[in-house]
Specification:
Length: about 350
C-alpha cells in the first residue's frame, strides 16, 4: 500500500504555541521536567568488545559511518538494521546478524532499504523496528535536506528472515510536512488502538490510531508525555525516544536520549504505564550512558559528530521472554560519535529503581 506524500510544509512554531495535547483516548498527563519520581537510575555497562560494527571502506554505500541501528530478535538471532553513510553522503540501511547479541558474524554486502522518494532523497535514517503480528514495522527518518519527516514501512517476518527485500512495503509519511523524528511503535494495541511515540522538537509525544499502522494516521490525538527540562540539565535542549518500547512487569521501559545546550547526546530511562502508555511513571534524573570513550567522544577526522551516544534498538538477552523482570538483562545498541556501533548492558532492576518496582 503506497500513500501519496503531501508536499505541504507545516509551521511548527505556530502549531507548538497552540497545543500541548490534542484529543486522546486516555486521561492526559503532561509532566514537567523531572517532577516524576526523582530516584536515580543505575547506569549501563559497556561491552568490552566495542565497537561491534565499523564502516567498510570497500563498500561505497557504507564507507564512512555506521550508526543508530534498530534491533529485533527473530528466530533465535539478533538482527541489526543499521544506518550507513557512504561516499555519496546518502544514508541507507544495512543488515548485520548475531547469534548471541554481541558478535555480529554475518553482514550483508548491499543495503536492505534505501531512498525511493523525493522526501527521503538524502537518506533513510535512524530506523526502529517493531513486531506486530506477522509483520515487522519500521519507522525511520526521511531526509530530503530540508525537512526531516517520519517514514513508515513494513515487511512480512518470513520475507525478512529470507532476505526478500523487494517485499518491503512503504506506507508513506506519518504527519506529512511536519518536521519530526525519533518515532517508534508499541508492539501491542491499547483498547484496540496502535500507539506511536514521536518527537516534534523538543519533546516526546504519543499518538494513537484505531487503524492499522500502515494506514494514514490521524492529525489529532497527539499528546506530549515528556518535556525537555531546560536549564543546564543533560536533557535540557531536546529529548527523544531511543530504542523501541520494552515490556517489563513494571511498565514499558524506554531507553531515551537527551541533548544539552553543549550538544552532548546522552541516554536516559523512562517507564510508561503498561495499560496506558500516555502516563509517565518514572523518568531518570540522571543519564545512564554518556560519551566517555574515544569512539564516543570523536573529534578526529575519522568521526562524524563528536560527543554522541544514541540508541535506536535494544533486545533482552533472553530473546524468547515476552515480559521482563528485575533480573533480566537488556542489551542496548548505540551509535558512538555517529561513526560506529557499540553495545552496553544492564539488568532491568538496575534501570528501574526498587521504589518504582514496588
Amino acid at each position: 500500500m503506497i500513500i501519496k506524500v503531501m508536499e505541504k510544509r507545516i509551521d511548527l512554531n505556530r502549531v507548538g504555541q497552540s497545543i500541548d495535547s490534542w484529543d486522546v483516548p486516555f486521561p492526559v498527563f503532561v509532566p514537567h521536567g523531572h517532577t516524576v519520581n526523582q530516584m536515580a537510575a543505575g547506569t549501563l555497562t559497556r561491552f568490552s568488545g566495542n565497537p561491534v560494527l565499523k564502516p567498510i571502506k570497500e563498500h561505497q554505500w557504507e564507507s564512512k559511518y555506521v550508526l543508530n541501528a534498530a534491533t529485533i530478535g527473530l528466530d533465535g538471532k539478533v538482527y541489526m538494521v543499521y544506518r550507513a553513510y557512504g561516499d555519496d553522503e546518502i544514508s541507507r540501511l544495512g543488515l548485520a546478524v548475531s547469534k548471541d547479541g554481541f558478535n555480529f558474524t554475518e553482514r550483508l554486502e548491499t543495503p536492505i532499504f534505501e531512498p525511493d522518494h523525493s522526501s527521503e532523497s538524502l537518506g533513510c535514517e535512524d530506523p526502529r523496528l517493531t513486531l506486530l503480528g506477522a509483520r515487522v514495522f519500521m519507522t525511520y527518518t526521511a531526509w530530503d535536506g530540508e525537512v526531516p519527516q517520519i517514514g513508515l514501512a513494513s515487511i512480512w517476518v518470513k520475507d525478512f528472515l529470507n532476505y526478500r527485500w523487494k517485499e518491503w512495503q512503504r506506507h508513506g509519511l506519518f504527519l506529512p510536512g511536519v518536521p519530526n523524528k525519533d518515532a517508534t511503535l508499541f508492539p501491542e494495541e491499547f483498547n484496540g488502538k496502535v500507539a506511536m511515540l514521536h518527537r516534534i522538537e523538543p519533546h516526546i509525544w504519543i499518538t494513537y490510531s484505531s487503524r492499522r499502522p500502515e494506514q494514514p494516521w490521524p492529525n489529532t490525538g497527539h499528546q506530549i508525555i515528556a518535556k525537555a527540562t531546560g536549564g543546564m540539565d543533560w536533557d535540557s535542549k531536546k529529548i527523544g525516544a531511543g530504542a523501541q518500547p520494552i515490556k517489563t512487569k513494571y511498565g514499558w521501559l524506554m531507553i531515551t536520549h537527551g541533548v544539552d545546550h553543549a550538544k552532548v547526546y546522552r541516554l536516559g530511562v523512562m517507564l510508561l504505564d503498561l495499560k496506558n502508555p500516555s502516563k509517565l511513571i518514572y523518568r531518570s534524573p540522571n543519564a545512564i550512558l554518556e560519551p566517555v570513550n574515544e569512539c564516543e567522544l570523536g573529534g578526529d577526522d575519522q568521526s562524524w559528530v563528536p560527543n554522541v551516544v544514541f540508541t535506536c534498538g535494544a533486545v533482552p538477552r533472553e530473546l524468547h521472554k515476552p515480559i521482563l523482570d528485575a533480573n533480566d538483562e537488556l542489551i542496548v545498541y548505540y551509535g558512538a560519535a555517529d561513526t560506529v556501533m557499540s553495545i552496553a548492558t544492564a539488568k532491568i532492576g538496575d534501570l528501574i529503581p526498587e521504589e518504582i518496582r514496588g
